[in-house]
């Protein structure tokens, strides 16, 4: 069996990054992948401005007297343009342009207003105090976003603050999804004897909706060789990636492997992971292919661990990061057989001593999906590891945004 690391490395080595780009207005670019480095055309702030409501001063004036007259006012959007005589200050509001020659801004709480209109300063400010310098946030020429970053509610406002109205992005990856098997019934229809609901396609669709994809739903394929081939031919004509669930295990319909190999080069792997041993990956004539196991938990885990990074590569999402791994104390015994890397559904928390603890949630069978409801992580147990005793350290992967 391949290790999950070997399988993932082989997949990513074959998959290409996108070459085509398109340009979108910022309002339409949320969750898309940036297709070029974005260079700031301006400084942010574009001018020195006040961080406080107060008084702009020249330190040389205050060195002679702590009481100054007021030469005028500066507001945000309306700078002080009058004559600034010696021994005077300028009343200034937050965000207003710093008058030429000012060394500091003294906040209004630290001054005393006198009846004759002068202002007495209670302290000697430091050079540059309460002044936001031009380019302090972003300097002109800075790379503010890199190729391969996802455009979000945090990064898009940054572009807007630079006056950038459009952004180059990679096209959405077109992903065709379908399920295989006569036993499957669409969600919402009544079940007859021997039938089960097609939860895998529904699950995969929900996961894809969180990724920069366009989803093409080809429904359920019956165990009919001619219909199977027809559906795959249609899917690869429209999609960049085809994802199926079921039909990749030993003993399933013989024509599955025959048709896929007829349409391209597909590897039917046995991966040393649990759940999710059967997995298929390869290239059809016009699209890439991933075949998930039929068991619901296996389908989700293989999608999360293998298909998620594959889609990131195909989408140009080069800044995507693998799920974070942390160390935690097992709060109870964990059953584990030697031979495959195990991804158990778990719940972790911070104990009274500030340490991470984790426990398995529910039964871990690959057909038992309900344990995911109360889980917030995978407990990742190494292939060579056996049973875990309470108190031992284990690796956990907190769910990323795909399973939030």
TrEMBL record:
Gene3D superfamilies in UniProt: MoaB/Mog-like domain (3.40.980.10), MoeA, C-terminal, domain IV (2.40.340.10), Molybdopterin biosynthesis moea protein, domain 2 (3.90.105.10), Molybdopterin biosynthesis moea protein, domain 3 (2.170.190.11)
CDD domains: MoeA
Occurrences of domain MoaB/Mog (ranges): 176-313
Pathway this chain belongs to: Cofactor biosynthesis; molybdopterin biosynthesis
One Pfam family recorded for the sequence: MoeA_C
Entry cofactors: Mg(2+)
Top enzyme category: transferase
InterPro entries xref list: MoaB/Mog-like_dom_sf, MoaB/Mog_dom, MoCF_biosynth_CS, MoeA-like, MoeA_C_domain_IV, MoeA_C_domain_IV_sf, MoeA_linker/N, MoeA_linker/N_sf
NCBIfam families assigned to the protein according to its UniProt record, in alphabetical order: Glp_gephyrin (NF045515), molyb_syn (TIGR00177), PRK10680.1 (NF007960)
Family indicated by similarity: Belongs to the MoeA family.
Biological role stated in the UniProt entry: Catalyzes the insertion of molybdate into adenylated molybdopterin with the concomitant release of AMP.
Protein name (record): Molybdopterin molybdenumtransferase
Organism from which the protein derives: Avibacterium volantium
